[in-house]
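Batch manifest, entry 17 of 40.
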Amino acid sequence: MIIMIAAAAENNALGKNNELVWHLPNDFKRFKSLTTGHHIIMGRKTFESFPKPLPNRVHVIITRQENYQPEGCIVVDSIEKAIAACPENDDSYVIGGGEIYNLALPFTDIIELTKVHHSFDADTFFPKINKSEWLLVESEENYKDEKHLYDYTYETYIRK
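Output type: structure tokens
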């Protein structure tokens, strides 16, 4: 299955200047738990925003740059080739950024969304979820605390 995983604000903001605009440690733990051991599909800018490749995951990077070949990664030039590079009988995760989410949406079976209950100034946005195409099947509210400055909700959507 193709699973899109993201954290987006109330205004669908994802980030600004290739960085997240919030810090939610529990969401990072959830991301790690869900994606570890799987293929993760991302754009080049998302990959380059990491200090190093994420451990225990196969990185599939979509880029138009020729001769771009980070060590140990699969590099392709389209979402179709990225999906084809992933095992058919396993979950693969689309992890961003905004352009990649838009390209991957038609191929996506499940959306794992962390909705951050705040609006942010951003330059990258998550696509709007069309409620006629997606069914919310799980929702878990989380509240701000000493480590989390914002309330947030884990939401799981499946394609209708």
